[in-house]
Amino acid sequence: MREISAKHIKEAVKKLVMDTEYNLPSDFVKAIEEAKEKEVSEIGKEILGLILKNAETAKTEQVAYCQDTGYPVFFVDIGQDVRITDGYITDAINEGVREATKEGYLRASLAYDPVFERKNTKDNTPALIYYNIVPGDKIKIKFAAKGGGSENQSKQVMLKPADGLEGVKKFVLSSIANAGPNACPPFTVGVGIGGTFDYSTVLAKKALFRHIGERHPDPKIAKLEEELIEEANKLGVGPLGFGGKITVIDVKIEIAPSHIASLPVAVNIQCHAARHKEIEI
Questions:
Q1: Average pLDDT for residues 206-232, to the nearest whole number?
Q2: pTM
Q3: Which of 7, 34, 185, 189 has its CA 20 to 30 A from that of 153?
Q4: What's the per-residue H, E or C state across 195-264?
Q5: CA distances, 159 to each of 196, 200, 265 (Å)
Q6: Rg (Cα) of the chain, in Å, rounded?
Q7: Cβ–Cβ under 8 Å, residues 142 and 83
Q8: What are 155-210's pLDDT values in tens digits?
Q9: Are residues 73 and 153 in the same domain?
Q10: Are residues 75 and 195 in the same domain?
């Protein structure tokens, strides 16, 4: 049994959050560079250049890439041979977020009461945390700062099994088209197919953590990802919705078994502030 201190987890989370807010993933930056070369629209090229400049400024000056510092979302794999000491892991993660928000000058973006008073929690907590128990004696923490603009354009539908592949494609592409400029393209798009109503959305969000260009291991799903990328980039939305060839950078799909009477599909849109990283303790 390996012991890991909650204090160590807190410090690791604080660094992870600040690093993620300041530094876009290198694979995404590279994909934007390649997209700039492919873009046919002059204003689209200019916008992609500004995105790269903004990323470099955020990295150099260690400031938030976007003023919307997002809803803190964590996927945490805990090895079954790990014992947390000196506190609770959920408290440690939230304290790490709290300290990162204050020390990193990150905007507090959470409203505790979403309907009535909408009072800000003032420190970006509580975080949304999904736990998974896995073999081993390590903890893997994946973090995403999920902005409101792109999250607002995400969709879920309970299709009929008879809708099949064409129904899935139609829903995904219409969700991307309807997101338009409101979700700050170019997007990465997470798609969850199967599971239940709620789990399909978790799958879609989880898909966003895969590296750019990392195709699903099932060849049929990988082919669908590639088809959706091609079709989405024919929609003409373009960078920031000004038109052009590059609407999406990538589409990533995760699947799960579903009830024989159901075909849940979820689309989680991610704007060009593709802030997600992971660490292992």
A1: 97
A2: 0.94
A3: 34
A4: ECHHHHHHHHHHHCCCCCCCCCCCHHHHHHHHHHHHHHCCCCCCHHHCCCCCCEEEEEEEEEEECCCCEE
A5: 11, 12, 7
A6: 19
A7: no
A8: 999 999 999 999 999 999 999 999 999 999 999 999 999 999 999 999 999 999 99
A9: no
A10: no
Q: Are residues 252 and 127 in the same domain?
A: no
182 HSE (CA, 13 A, CB side): 14
Closest C-alpha among 124, 88, 267, 244 to residue 190: 267
Strand pairing partners for 243? none
Q: Residue 197: what residue type?
A: F
pLDDT at 257: 98
Residue 77 lies in a domain: yes
- Are 9 and 132 members of one domain? yes
Judge if 80 and 115 occupy the same domain: yes
Residue 55 lies in a domain: no
Q: Are residues 171 and 189 in the same domain?
A: yes
What residues does 254 pair with on adjacent strands?
192
pLDDT in the model for residue 203: 98
Identify whether residues 94 and 206 lie together within a single domain. no
How far, CA to CA in Å, does 259 sit from each of 82, 161, 162, 271, 281?
A: 34, 10, 13, 31, 36
**Mean model confidence pLDDT for the chain:** 96
List the structure tokens of 26.
Answer: 């290198």
pLDDT at 82: 97
- Stretch (H or E) spanning 21: helix 6-22
- pLDDT tens for residues 233-276? 999 999 999 999 999 999 999 999 999 999 999 999 999 999 99
**Structural domain boundaries, residue 108:** 2-20+65-146
